[in-house]
Structure to design on (490 residues):
């Protein structure tokens, strides 16, 4: 992706570049600090279950406008409630996904589970959502935040993000800039998310029951997951945590007399899905059967199937249509505030509106990003690649996708540190995506817990379309909050 040379650059936290010897010294320390404090991952290129690499990180925290950060934090309880209401609106989910599931097999499989559960009635009325709403600032609107997506399944990095603040605090202190620390907001994502799981465990109200993490066959983002597990074990030692793949659950899982989920003789109170959000996690019908078994069980799911479906890109697109928010939010001020974070999102369903979107995308593809119903990065089509991609699809196939206005974030400048990369790092142009975590617990009629739970910042090279941390173009970061009337540091 090319970057418009007129893109504004946010003022830096500290004056850069650093003198080379100082940069080499502090980067070396920061790498070890990262490994020793769990800002780390398993290597994809030389995997070993016995070792870790530090996770890619940004050396000095990237600037983010304070006003927009606070806006995102303040909106989270409203977004939590919105998603909870959407998840419980059978008619909305069904009509919104009707065209999509004709062509998208993965979403159709999820929807089939939903349909079967609806037909038999929900065994467990409560759901827990551990959500993450992601934002980019948009320079054409004074860097106002625009929502990139909302995650309702496997919202990750709450664990590492919490520890990254300490890493960057350490770097700033080493560099003699302890005065900057007050502008880095505290981050209690890990505690907030895990306490949410434990609140769900309390609702289940069986002292012997466990929390089950559903994991991939190989977990590269192991530290983030283990932070959650170890936090629960250390803070609530009476609650056991199990880790199982979908395949394991198929092999070992069964339902008890009251439909309790039983695994190796233990009853499961809460299921936390860190896998199951992409087709590759389902090797065969066995894994789908396991998902269905869990869904029909008495365990409280994070997410339940209706929450998973509420997080699809298609539902996000439908929510951004005029007057739709009114169905889910009562307060006109809240509707206005949430409406403002949406950017243009367009249906590609096989109808007049969808055809108009298609024509628009062919005319000015540079303004858009094309998204399928997938999570986990690397699936979208950007700008000038869109026409070819669309033309290869039939009209019906297009309804598996949505079109979205491209957001133009401001730039920051800094050092990205990644395993195996050249030392010392060089200054690069970057853009940051803010994620705000939220916890919501309730049933169809009541919400009993609803709070914002910390944040994460992921920063990518300005020239990269996407900044997947594991994929290698993104790095973990945390925000340094700047005000419009700050003095210029540069
Ligand atoms: P995924 O579910 O794969 O994470 P996202 O919708 O978050 O899908 O898109 C992946 C990445 O693509 C985002 O993290 C962001 O960097 C980039 N991206 C997505 N939508 C937009 C957009 N509208 N404008 C600019 N960049 C975008
Ligand atoms: Mg994303």
């Amino acid at each position: 992706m090319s970057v418009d040379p007129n893109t504004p650059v946010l003022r830096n936290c500290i004056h850069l570049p650093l003198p080379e010897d100082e940069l080499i010294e502090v980067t070396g320390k920061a790498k070890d600090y990262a490994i020793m404090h769990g800002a780390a991952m398993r290597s994809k290129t030389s995997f070993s279950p016995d070792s870790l690499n530090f996770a890619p990180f940004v050396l000095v925290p990237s600037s983010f406008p304070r006003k927009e950060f606070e806006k995102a934090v303040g909106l989270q309880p409203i977004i939590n409630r919105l998603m909870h209401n959407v998840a419980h609106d059978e008619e909305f989910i069904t009509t919104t996904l009707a065209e999509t599931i004709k062509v998208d097999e993965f979403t159709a499989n999820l929807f089939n589970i939903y349909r079967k559960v609806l037909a038999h009635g929900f065994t467990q009325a409560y759901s827990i959502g551990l959500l993450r709403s992601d934002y980019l600032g948009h320079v054409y609107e004074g860097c106002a935040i625009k929502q990139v997506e909302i995650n309702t399944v496997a919202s990750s990095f709450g664990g590492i993000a919490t520890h990254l603040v300490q890493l960057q605090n350490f770097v700033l202190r080493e560099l003699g800039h302890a005065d900057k620390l007050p502008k880095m907001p505290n981050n209690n994502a890990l505690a907030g998310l895990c306490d949410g799981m434990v609140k769900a465990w309390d609702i289940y109200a069986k002292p012997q029951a466990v929390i089950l993490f559903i994991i991939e066959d190989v977990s590269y983002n192991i530290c983030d997951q283990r932070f959650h597990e170890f936090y629960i074990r250390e803070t609530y030692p009476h609650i056991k945590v199990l880790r199982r793949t979908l395949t394991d659950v198929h092999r070992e899982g069964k339902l008890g007399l009251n439909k309790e989920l039983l695994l190796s003789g233990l009853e499961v109170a809460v299921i936390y899905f860190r896998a199951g959000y992409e087709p590759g996690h389902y090797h065969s019908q066995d894994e789908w059967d396991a998902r269905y078994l869990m869904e029909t069980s008495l365990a409280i799911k994070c997410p339940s199937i209706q929450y998973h479906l509420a997080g699809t890109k298609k539902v996000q697109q439908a929510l951004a249509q005029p007057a739709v928010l009114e169905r889910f939010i009562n307060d006109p001020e809240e509707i206005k505030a949430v409406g403002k974070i949406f950017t243009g999102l367009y249906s590609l369903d096989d109808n007049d509106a969808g055809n108009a979107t298609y024509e628009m995308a062919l005319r000015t593809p540079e303004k858009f990003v094309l998204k399928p119903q997938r999570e986990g990065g690397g699936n979208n089509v950007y700008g000038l690649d869109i026409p070819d991609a669309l033309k290869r699809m039939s009209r019906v196939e297009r309804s598996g996708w949505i079109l979205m206005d491209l957001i133009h974030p401001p730039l920051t400048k800094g050092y990205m540190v990644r395993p195996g990369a050249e030392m010392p790092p060089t200054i690069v142009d970057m853009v940051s995506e803010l994620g705000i975590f939220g916890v919501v617990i309730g049933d169809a009629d009541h919400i009993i817990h609803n709070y914002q739970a910390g944040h994460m910042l992921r920063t990518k090279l300005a020239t990269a379309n996407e900044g997947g941390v594991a994929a290698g173009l993104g790095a973990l970061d945390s925000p340094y909050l700047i005000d419009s009337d700050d003095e210029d540091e540069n």
Notes: The first strand starts at residue 40 and ends at 41. The mean pLDDT is 96.
